[in-house]
Every structure is written in structure tokens, then in C-alpha cells.
Amino acid sequence: MKITPSARVLRMLGEIEFDEWQCIAELIDNAFDDFTEIHRSGTPWAGGYRVSVELPDSTQGQLVITDTGRGMTYDRLERAVRAGWSGNDMHDKLGLFGMGFNVSTARLGKRTRVLTTRQGDTEWIGVEIDLDRIGDDFEAEDITEPKADPNEHGTRIVISRLHPTRAGWLRKNGPALRNILGQVYSWLLLERPFELWVGGFQVKPVRHCRWGDDRSVLYNNKERIPAYIEIDQRLENGLACGDCGQWQLTDRDTCEDCGSNRLTARERRVHGWLGIQRYMHKNDYGIDFLRNGRKILRWDKQLFTWRNPDGAAGNEEPEYPVDLAHQGGRIIGEIHLDHVPVTYQKDAFEYGDRSWRSAVEIVRGVAPLLPRRAVDMGYEENTSPLALLFKAFRRNDAGRRYLVPGDGRKPIHDDTRRWGQEFRRGNPDYQTDERWWQAVEDHEAAKSRGKNTNAAAATPGRPDEAAVMEALGYNGADTAEPTTPANETSSGSKRDTEAESPKDGGASNTFALASEQRPETRHERVTRYMENSTTYPALSRPFGHPRVGFVEVETRQLTAGNLADENLHRTPVLLDQRAGNSLVAFLDLDHAIFQKFGADPADLLLAEVAVLLRVRAETEWSHSELIAAIRAESLPATALDAQLISAEAQELLAEIRHRMVSELDRTGEAEKAYHFLSPDELTATEHAMIANGKVTRTVDLGTSGEFLLHVPALFLVRLVESLPSAFMDNRVFQGVYEGVASASARRLSLARTVGYLSDVATQATFAGASLPNQLQRTRLSIRLLADDLAEEK
User: Fold this and answer.
1) Directed axis angle between helix 20-41 and helix 174-184, to 10°?
2) Other Cβ atoms within 10 Å of 165 Cβ, number
3) pTM of the predicted protein model
4) Closest CA to 446 of 492, 409, 490
5) pLDDT, tens digit, for every residue of 485-516?
6) Is 353 exposed, middle or buried (0-12, 13-18, 19+ CB in 10 A)?
7) Whole-angstrom distance between the N-terminal and C-terminal Cα of the chain?
């Protein structure tokens, strides 16, 4: 069999680099192309659509790819293995370039056997390509094998004498290979009845963990923006060359690139979706771009950067994520561009092609995503799908406004990332977005309770010094342990009382009295706790250690009544064992241990869980040693890590900066605030702006409050002290200022807010090592300052 390549391909082959997974994918592409033709025809297909990849078990092993396609005739096989030939249409198939088979097999091993058969054939026919034996005549040996069942059909490729490094990679990285292929072919595996097996395991499509179609947020209290936007833009049909694939002017008869007259009208369509991921990630976000069902770009982030068409080369400005970029992003999507040409490696599109540029314009528009930058540069408002999601979800504050789960004080990104892993593992409890949404709702409820408790007396409705003193805890009264209402027992049920004997001795009254006095069962009590509690996301997770095992804990915060143990004694924590290895933990945060002594709920929960695990595992660890091990394993984010606490401080400061900017712009006091900058602070601000791509003249800085996004953190403290009326009284912070007549009360209220802000700004500025007590103080200030923020308008 002649496999003579063309000179054009010979020059190209030496320049193409393929990773191991790309080599496998090239061979899978050809099988999926065959499947696609069968599937589109609507003809029932015996044996199903299955591709199997058998990985080598040693460096001397072999790689086998088998499919259940239609098989090939001898003539078709001869053309298929000849480098440079392509029987594929350049716009309908995955196997675009013909030489993909030769490049991938040659990079994997020195000998390739291809065997194929059609339904009804009497034998397998094929060819053996041995790179060490083929001479200048480019002839490969024909081979045949007997066929046990005449109904068999498909193609089998056997690659042997593998390159040791590639064989080693394939042998050791089966799970990684399945994960990559599950991403690349996810759309085909989800939308068509195709199966892909690697190393004896079925490849599962890697789906996006996005918010549901019905989720949305209210932008500026007037515009409802969904978390999922479908895109389907049909462009005018164009002429495409059937030989080289290039698009042509509509008035041509021959291809301007290769001279072919095989020009046909083709559909040009940009379709798919953009959406918001349920969790943030430093790497796993961005847009997937597909061609004919295969992902060419995965987690691509180039559309998040604006390129000024009037600027010099390299004049690109990243626009997302910018605020809290260390957390990553969560805008995702899948966009199909079947008409846009791709590179030979199928790892990029031809970015210089006008069809790519028009697709980018449809998805992200031509103007900057940042509204203020767009206005400053003379652009109309960007209303593209990406711009809509950007303006609605660019920030990551916990709550309904941005669809971010929280714990009542701050986002719980570590937890939501862990839930995302459960989603990918196929855990049925995490497939819908209900757990994420419940955490958003619970955050709002906890936030509301906390703010009401902390600031009930410090509102403009009580403009007196005593009210402020009371709100700050300086009322001179001892804080007593919460008392149980007179009509409840320590378990929260009605107190047993002696009733008057009915005058008529009626049986009905006697029965009613007996019913009221019947003790509440444990099941009834736990049911009541479930009804009167909400999820506590920060402590809902697996708890344990590899040496003693793990339990899955759903923690719930009681919203009414008190917790009681088996003896009806009030308790701050109660565990309720459920089926399997799971349990529910109830927290009574009104208990004196929390309210009077300031205990950490995590500490008490860990103590209860440790008792359970210690009994189960019969470990030799001491109780305290076990608690320490469980905390390190299950709650690593609670460690007093200076870098972690600094990131929390920067996250909170970013929100405060944006709120202060809004207030200055609303009240027109930006110029006044600008004049409080010292020369050193002005220099630092300019440096920060330039480093972030903000080139603005110094004389223009005071025209808006945007300069506050770049000032040194400690300047914010001095600005609040200097202009308290601009930021207090539920503008940025809840603390009263103008709402009280007493100067001393004003000073006290301001000092509280400024004290918290100073701690947070100091940690954000100096992220170096600190003493544990200092870090504890800063973490507490972060929580208290978050509670002091006004409700977002």
C-alpha cells in the first residue's frame, strides 16, 4: 500500500508538536466523525457508538484504539493513512487535516497496525506502517486477520514500539487522560449517544457547575440580569472552499487561496451560552470555544481583556477579575464556532481571521467591559452578553446581590469550591444549585439578625448618648445569662403546670390536660429543631482525620427556643445521628457560652465530633490531640495564617472602597476627599494606578471618587475620621454620627468604626508575620467591621 505524503505536508510535519492526549484525541476525532455521519442519517446502528482506548501496561506494551464505526474499504483505507490526504469536509468534521493520523501515530510509536472491517465482510483488512522499514518507495505492508463474526464492524489501531517517555506518561496518567478527554468531548458525550472508554473506565463528560437558568440578580434596583444567558446569532451565509477550508468573497468562482472550484455556501452561526459558576476558582473559569462539538479552547480568558484598537501593540488591559483577583473568577460559558478556522494542533482558532473577530464582537462587544472606562473613551454602553454578566457579577460580596454564598459575615469560597468538587464527583446532593442558594439565603438571614442585634440601639431613631452607649455595650449593667421564657422548659416546650380541676369533671378536659402534659419525645424535639433552624454553611462539611475516619456533618443554627440534651438540660451543641455516616449538628448561639464567654462554635462542635470518632475508632490519641488533628484536617481556613487573614482584610477593604467611591460620587465630595491625600500618599496612589493600567493625570484624580480604589489602605482610616458625615449613619457604615446630639457619643461611635477599620487596613498593608493575639484581633475586627457595614442600596 502506497502512503506517499505530499511535499507540503512533509515540511509541516516536523513543526507540529502534539502532547500525548492530543495524539489520542486525533484518533478519537476520526471515529467520532464517522459516528456523527451515522447519527445524522437517522439509521439505527447495531452495537452502539463506542470508542475504546487500551493503555500500555509497560514501556514495551502497545496502545490500542478501537471503534464500532462503519469500517472502510481498501481504497478508503489507503487514502486515510496517506499523509496529506483528507476526505473530510473542512467545516463539518473534527478530523480536519488528514495528516493528523500520521503525526499522532508517529509521535507515539514506530509501528502502527490499522485493521478495519465492514458489516458483512469476511475478514479484517489493514496495513502495517513500520517507520524503521519503510523505504523511499513509501510502501507499507498489507495485512489481514480472520473475522469470527461477519456482523462485526469498525476500525482498530494498534501502536507498538512506543516511545518510552510517552508510554510512561500514558501508563501512569489514565485518570488525567480521562479528565482531559472528558472536558474536550463533553458536549458530544452529553448531546449524542457516543461512548468513550479509556483504560477500562468510561470517560464522563466534565460538566459546568453553573447557576440554574432561573437565577438572577437585580442590578441598581431596576435591571434584572440572569445568571445564564443563551446566545444564538446567525450571520449571513458565506462561501467556503471544500479543499482548504478558507472563506471567500461571495462573488468568487474559485478559491483565492488554493484555486479550487469546490466552493459551497455554508452556515455561519455563533451560538451557546454564558453563565456564572457556583464557586470561584483561580484557574477554572473562562469560556470554552467549540468547533463541531470538540472544545478547542478550555477555560479561555482572553475575552476578559480589552484591546484598544487605537493603541499600540501590547496595549491590553485586563478587566476581569480585577477586584480581588487573587480569588479568581466565575464567569464561564460554551460558545460554538463551527465556521471559524482552527490551527493544525486544534488548540487555538485563527485569531487573525475575520470570522473570529466577528464572533468576539458578538460575545463581548467592542467597548470596554468597565462602564466608566467605556464612557471616558467615548464608547456607547456595552450591552453584549459578557458585559451584562460582568456588570452584574463582577464583585464577589456574599448575598443575593451577587449570588455568593456566605456565613452571615463573609463569602465562604472554600466551602463552595468543595461543593463544586462534589458536583463533579456526581454526588446527587450537589447537582442542582439548591445548596448554594440555601447558603445565600442563610447568609442574608444571619446577616440581618447580626446587624439588628449589634445596631438596634445605634440608629437615628434613638438620638441620644445613652442609646449609643447601650449599643456599644457600655451600659454599666452585667450581662446575665439568657433566661428561659416562663412558658417554656429548658427544652423549649411548654412548662408543665398544675391546672384547675374542671368543675364538671368532663372527660374531654381531662384528655386535653393529659395531652398538654405529655413529655416531648426526642424525635418530636429534633423535628422542632429542624423546623426552627437554618443551615450554618461555615461548619457544614466532612469532619475527621484519616486515622479515625470522617463523618458528614450538616450544621444548623437554631432560630427559636433552646437546645436540650437527653436529660432536657440546656446545651450549646446537639448531635443527631442520621443514616450512614452522616449527622446533623444543632447550634444554640444564644447560649451563655457564646454570648457571655465568646466561645467559638467550631471549638464546641469539634469537641462533640471528637467524642464520637474516638469511640468509633478506639484510637490511642488523647481527646485534645484528636480535636487538634480534626481542626487541622477539616477547618484549615481557621488557622491564624497571616497571608490568609490579609486576604480576608483585602477582600473586605475592596468592598468598603467601592462603597466609599459611590458615596463620594453621589454627594459630590470626591474633590474634598482628594485634598486629604498627603504627598507620599498621592505618589503611592499614582504608582498603584499605573501598575493596574490606570493612566490618569493627577489633576483629574479628584473629579470622581475612583481614586479611592488605589489609595493606601490606611488613608481610608484617616478619611473616615476626617469626613465622618460622608460615610457614617448608614451610608457606608451603620454607626450613628449626625443622628446623635452629644459630641462624646459621636466620638465613641466613630472610634468604634475607625478602630475596626484601622485593624483591617493595617493587616492589608503589612501582611508579614504577626503574633497569634494580633491575628485573632484582626480577624475579629474583620467580622465586626463587616457587621457594621450598612445595607447595600
Assistant:
1) 40
2) 10
3) 0.74
4) 409
5) 434 444 344 333 333 334 444 444 444 444 45
6) middle
7) 75
